[in-house]
């Protein structure tokens, strides 16, 4: 039995003996002598049988936990000892002062040597260590374990495969595969050459999501290596079949795939095709010509668009491009045309590079994954850091598959504008097949399909490897990215603006009878969790595009209409619009026929249905309904607001300078953080704003009122306009109000000047300090019992607010009421008037002017938290709890009851993103332990995950207080 030490309540104990499943401990200061003894029971309760004869030593207590965390971390983490020390010292600042890094550095290295495997020199040694009984646990994760397989088909070719057979087998049956490799994350100390070695990844498509499932470290990129790898998989998984495989144009790779998977459709990645075409044009000296000459760029685009043709039409299309090119361009491109013909049409062949009629035309799922891989792993990490990160990726992938099989999503839905773009590509294909357009017309249109791609390549003149691709283009399953289709239905999606919509409506009145019906489309996602997902972010600034003559007939049409596609997403098909997250996209669209419009919407419906989306339609003949729609459902038309935690007030003031933003919902992004806003970040943003703005624009104790010193009134008073807008938008989006604003301020905001004396007095007692409030209450109830000192303090209190009357018993209540009215009503009134002037009339009418005093008072009372109220809100998510979970659930309740007002606000901010009382707080449990043990909050659903591994209440309380005390605990770390 290990003689594990124990630290409780500032005392340290060492294990004395174990008897009948009880652990008997003695004080570590027994040499004093201290005869304290205690017993630790199996349920985690510790009781003293003999008390201590010396005071508690909390510094020693902190030091104990600090050393324990350091020891556990160096054995588990691959970070440097210095980095580990710096991260943990934030949790134990006092102990870090007693134990600097120089004093513990050698011990940390010693701890690491005893619990970390040695570094291998070859791939074979790496494999031997991973399968050894001592170190095989390095590949385990919460739902299983990776297994590794070493293959050596020849002397110079070595392959080390990683996958979980139980997890992989069902995924490889009748699947769609994406395969690609990256070089940067190959570990540096296993004898692999960084020039020829690679980390090869196989991803499969599940419910329109690409999931990585197999990794391979390969010393060579030869056909022999690839054939050996795929043969191993085919022999281990006899049911492995692939309907479609997407790869790049590495000859050894695609030839091996054709050999091992003859029944599969194998296609090259469209982006890699275009990238190779562009790079070769630069090598042949055409870079400046393509950049400066529009006709040359059109020819290059048409060559790229050859991959969009059916394979049997590619040669004909190529000859057509050459014949239609201007003479000077044809002469300049002669060597380039020879390259395309010999390399692509005769070498690679159109059967491989054609992506005609494919939904997923690029390998960007793997490329995007490799970017994340390289960012997480770093460049050529050490082998055990590589192992740790690989296991984490497998764990995430395993969890994603479980989520997908349950009918939920792990990525956002494709945006409507991308679906419309895809509809036009599909329609062009269909028209070409039905001979409604000629090959020449298709190429003329298709050159605009790749315009965004060409701009991306032109902007990245420094040739980079595939690992560094930053732009995903065209359609790739759930990742659908931007392409400009200039001759098609949609030109560009712009941010919706109510005023512009109204102007457009009046401008198009003469055309109204001829145009198709504008649609407000409502989409509902079947989801088991209480989350809302926005399909589109319309607050994207347009990138500058090179100017171009309007050469196409469709571009010369100056008559355009404004159309809206509004997408509402909710959970479980609920009809309650209060839980919807809406997205309204305002688009500039060329005139189309009703048949074409129906065609596009049919395509959108099909893609949405493929993503488990149910679609309903609303029809309107003009944009007037849109205004009412936004007013009734202000969460529509989501705008992205990026905030820096160090300048939230400044950022929000700048954002709310436009009053129309209060008609739309928000998508909050905190700089440097990875949280996704499903409501939780919005609540937190408003909470942070009010916590900071009160410092400069309000004054008071338990309640606050608008206030500015004289020297700031001229400069800053108009900011109260913005504060009024923010207050209104907060109420609309989060259904909450700052509870520190007194009732009388809200009544002035309601334009209600008949405020009772009782409300004024109650608010005034909360506005002043507690000592002043006690003095006021005593003066009103028993003036004659005031001492001389108290009378002097009362006089001082009067004069501090500019009132110099002598306190009199018969006038005391009237004097204080007059003072309170002046402070709470008269002086803030001008600021509150400015706040009202910044609020849109529609919100004054529908929000503030219709609210009664009783309703407002009820709202504020319901929002004010107390420990008991919060405990009453806490609900366990699991129906039945284990003994460990029940114990920790009780610890949580007792912890909340013990919190002060300020600590309670921190707890609520951590869990819910707001300091107001929520309707409920869900509690669920995990098995995290050691350094990984921490509370995890999901602010969008008011859910907190807690480890069930706590043995006693003091341990739980200590760790919870440490997390709530540090600012970094409130940052978001997952998308």
Short description:
With 975 residues, the protein is α+β, with helices and mostly antiparallel strands.
Describe the structure in your own words.
- Strands 8-9-12-11-10-13-14 form a 7-stranded mixed beta sheet, sandwiched between helices.
- Among the domains are: 1-55, Single Sheet (N-terminal domain of TfIIb), CATH 2.20.25; 489-542 and 558-632, no CATH class; 745-862, no CATH class; 867-970, Hect, E3 ligase catalytic fold (2-Layer Sandwich), CATH 3.30.2410.
- It has 38 helices and 29 strands.
- The protein is flat.
- A hairpin with a 4-residue loop joins strand 28 and strand 29 (943-947).
Class of secondary structure makeup: alpha+beta
Shape: flat
The total of beta strands comes to 29
Lateral arrangement of strands in the main beta sheet: 8-9-12-11-10-13-14
Compute the CA-based radius of gyration. Answer: 34 Å
Calculate the mean pLDDT score and round it: 75
Per DSSP, the total helix count is 38
As a percent range, the share of helical residues equals 40-55%
Estimate what percentage of residues fall within beta strands: 15-25%
């Amino acid at each position: 039995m290990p003689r594990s030490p124990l630290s409780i309540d500032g005392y340290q104990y060492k294990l004395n003996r174990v008897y009948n499943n009880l652990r008997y401990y003695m004080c570590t200061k027994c040499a004093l002598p201290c005869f304290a003894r205690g017993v630790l029971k199996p349920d985690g309760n510790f009781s003293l049988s003999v008390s201590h004869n010396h005071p508690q030593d909390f510094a020693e207590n902190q030091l104990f936990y600090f050393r324990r965390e350091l020891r556990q971390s160096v054995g588990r983490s691959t970070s440097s000892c210095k980095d580990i020390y710096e991260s943990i010292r934030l949790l134990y600042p006092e102990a870090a002062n007693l134990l600097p890094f120089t004093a513990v550095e050698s011990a940390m290295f010693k701890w690491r040597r005893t619990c970390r495997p040695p570094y291998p020199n070859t791939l074979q040694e790496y494999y031997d260590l991973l399968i050894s009984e001592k170190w095989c646990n390095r590949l385990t994760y919460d739902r299983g374990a990776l297994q590794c397989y070493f293959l050596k088909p020849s002397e110079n070719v070595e392959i080390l495969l990683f996958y979980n057979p139980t997890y992989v087998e069902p995924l490889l049956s009748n699947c769609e595969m994406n395969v690609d490799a990256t070089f940067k994350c190959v570990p540096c100390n296993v004898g692999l050459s960084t020039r020829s070695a690679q980390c090869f990844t196989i991803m499969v498509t599940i419910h329109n999501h690409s999931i990585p499932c197999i990794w391979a470290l390969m010393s060579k990129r030869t056909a022999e290596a690839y054939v050996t790898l795929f043969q191993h998989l085919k022999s281990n998984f006899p049911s492995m079949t692939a309907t479609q495989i997407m790869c790049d144009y590495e000859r050894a790779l695609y030839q091996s795939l054709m050999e091992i998977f003859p029944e599969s459709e194998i296609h090259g990645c469209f982006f890699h095709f275009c990238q190779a075409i562009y790079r070769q044009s630069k090598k042949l000296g055409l870079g400046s010509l393509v950049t400066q000459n529009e006709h040359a760029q059109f020819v290059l685009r048409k060559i790229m668009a050859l991959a969009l043709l059916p394979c049997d039409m590619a040669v004909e299309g190529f000859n057509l491009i050459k014949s239609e090119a201007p003479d000077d361009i044809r002469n300049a491109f002669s060597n380039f045309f020879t390259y395309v013909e010999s390399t692509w049409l005769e070498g690679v062949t159109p059967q491989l590079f054609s992506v005609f009629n494919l939904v997923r035309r690029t390998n960007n799922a793997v490329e995007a994954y490799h970017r994340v891989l390289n960012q997480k792993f770093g460049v050529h990490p050490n082998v055990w850091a590589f192992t740790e990160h690989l296991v984490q990726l497998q764990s995430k992938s395993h969890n994603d598959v479980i989520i997908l099989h349950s009918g939920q999503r792990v990525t956002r839905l494709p945006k409507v504008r991308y679906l419309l773009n895809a509809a036009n590509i599909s329609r062009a294909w269909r028209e070409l097949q039905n001979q409604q357009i000629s090959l020449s017309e298709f190429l003329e249109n298709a050159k605009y399909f790749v315009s965004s791609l060409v701009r991306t390549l032109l902007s990245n003149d420094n040739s980079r490897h595939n690992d560094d691709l930053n732009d995903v283009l065209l359609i790739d399953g759930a990742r659908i990215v931007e392409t400009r289709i200039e001759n098609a239905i949609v030109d560009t999606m712009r941010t919706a603006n109510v005023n512009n919509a109204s102007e457009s409506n009046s401008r198009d009145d003469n055309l109204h009878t001829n145009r198709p019906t504008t649609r407000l489309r409502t989409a509902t996602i079947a989801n088991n969790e209480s989350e809302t997902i926005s399909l589109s972010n319309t607050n994207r600034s347009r990138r500058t595009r090179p100017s171009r003559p309007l050469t196409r007939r469709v571009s010369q049409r100056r008559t355009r209409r404004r159309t809206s596609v509004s997408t509402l997403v909710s959970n479980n098909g609920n009809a309650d619009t209060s839980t919807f997250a809406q997205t309204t996209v305002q688009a500039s669209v060329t005139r189309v026929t009703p048949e074409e419009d129906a065609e596009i919407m049919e395509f959108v419906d099909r893609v949405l249905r493929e993503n488990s989306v149910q679609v309903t339609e609303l029809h309107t003949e003009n944009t007037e309904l849109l205004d009412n729609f936004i007013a009734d459902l202000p969460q529509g038309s989501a705008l992205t607001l990026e905030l820096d935690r160090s300048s939230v007030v400044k950022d929000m003031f700048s954002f709310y300078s436009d009053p129309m933003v209060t008609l739309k919902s928000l998508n909050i992004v905190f700089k440097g953080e990875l949280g996704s806003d499903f409501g939780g970040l919005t609540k937190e943003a408003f909470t942070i704003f009010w916590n900071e703005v009160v410092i400069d624009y309000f004054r008071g104790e338990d309640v606050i009122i608008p206030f500015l010193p004289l020297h700031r009134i001229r400069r800053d008073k108009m900011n109260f306009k913005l504060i009024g807008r923010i207050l209104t938008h907060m109420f609309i989006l989060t259904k909450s109000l700052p509870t520190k604003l007194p009732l009388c301020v809200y009544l002035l905001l309601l334009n209600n000047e008949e405020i009772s004396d009782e409300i004024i007095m109650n608010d005034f007692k909360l506005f002043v300090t507690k000592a002043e409030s006690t003095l006021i209450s005593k003066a009103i109830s028993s003036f004659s019992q005031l001492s001389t000192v108290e009378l002097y303090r009362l006089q001082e209190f009067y004069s501090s607010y500019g009132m110099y009357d002598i306190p009199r018993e018969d006038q005391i209540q009237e004097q204080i009421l007059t003072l309170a009215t002046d402070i709470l009503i008269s002086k803030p009134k001008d600021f509150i008037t400015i706040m009202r002037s910044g609020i849109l009339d529609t919100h004054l009418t529908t929000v503030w002017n219709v609210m009664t005093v009783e309703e407002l008072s009820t709202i504020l009372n319901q929002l004010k938290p107390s420990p008991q109220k919060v405990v009453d809100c806490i609900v366990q998510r699991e129906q039945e709890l284990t003994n460990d979970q029940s114990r920790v659930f009780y610890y949580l309740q007792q912890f909340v009851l013990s919190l002060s007002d300020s600590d309670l606000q921190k707890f609520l901010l951590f869990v819910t993103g707001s300091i107001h009382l929520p309707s409920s707080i869900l509690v669920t449990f995990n098995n995290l332990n050691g350094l990984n043990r921490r509370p995890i909050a999901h602010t969008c659903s008011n859910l907190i995950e807690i480890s069930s591994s706590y043995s006693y209440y003091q341990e739980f309380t200590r760790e919870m207080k440490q997390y709530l005390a540090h600012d970094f605990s409130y940052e978001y770390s997952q998308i």
